[in-house]
Amino acid sequence: MRSLPTVAGFSDVRLRGLTAPMYFGADPDDAFRFVSAQNAGTVRDLDPDDRSSALGALRASLVDHHLAGGVYYESAAWLVEARRP
């Protein structure tokens, strides 16, 4: 991971892993509207039974991740900091 910025001419490359809950909606219905709209293309070509099954699994997962403040999933990213000489 450090080699790409170094090859691009950066120095003092620092990597920091970040984790934080990611908000998807106020409740499972709100989150379902958002996530299913964002991913409509992934289920578009499925036959009706498979589409129904996939969307049912999505809804169940959203219900499982519903907390007092909304629907949250854990997320992770790398923060890359570097200096350009």
Question: What report would you give on this structure?
Answer:
This protein is an alpha+beta fold and 85 residues long. It has one domain (3-83). Helices cover 44% and strands 36% of the residues. Strands 1-3-2 form a three-stranded antiparallel β-sheet. The model has no long low-confidence stretch (mean pLDDT 95).
**Order of H and E elements:** HEHHHEE
Give a count of the beta strands, DSSP E runs of length 2 or more: 3
**Overall outline:** elongated
Biggest pleated-sheet summary = 3 strands, antiparallel
Compute the number of structural domains: 1
**DSSP helical segment count:** 4
Radius of gyration: 19 Å
Percentage of residues assigned to helices:
40-55%
Low-confidence regions: none
Mean pLDDT equals: 95
Structural class: alpha+beta
